Amino acid sequence: QVQLVESGGGLVQPGDSLKLSCAASGFTLDNYAITWFRQAPGKEREGVSCLRSGHRSTYYADSVKGRFTISRDNVKNTVYLQMNNLQVDDTAVYYCAADSAIYCSGPNSLTYEYDYWGQGTQVTVSS
Prior knowledge:
Blueprint: E1 3-7, E2 10-12, E3 18-25, E4 33-39, E5 46-52, E6 57-60, E7 68-73, E8 78-83, E9 92-99, E10 116-117, E11 121-125
Parallel strand pairs: 2-11
Antiparallel strand pairs: 1-3, 3-8, 4-5, 4-9, 5-6, 7-8, 9-10, 9-11
């Protein structure tokens, strides 16, 4: 049974950093793309970053490029999203999603309808 559990959200000030975790079970990371999405109140869901560890491919939305870094720990079967220089506009519920059909090679990896989703973790950036 595929399961994704996010953690690491919280309340921070502009310019601060947070590291989100997506713990995966029921599958191995090498065979799936893991993508972080976010959704702010009143806004559409936005794909943030994609990782396909078996193909060593990553993809980032322009809005986070240079500030966010996606990585993995195969031993822990966990994908991380390191978020630096957080801004108020980064406030959202962050979700991780998994799908075996995605290879993180382009923007479609951030808009695809993924098969498996976590429950989300809230990130609030406020002064």
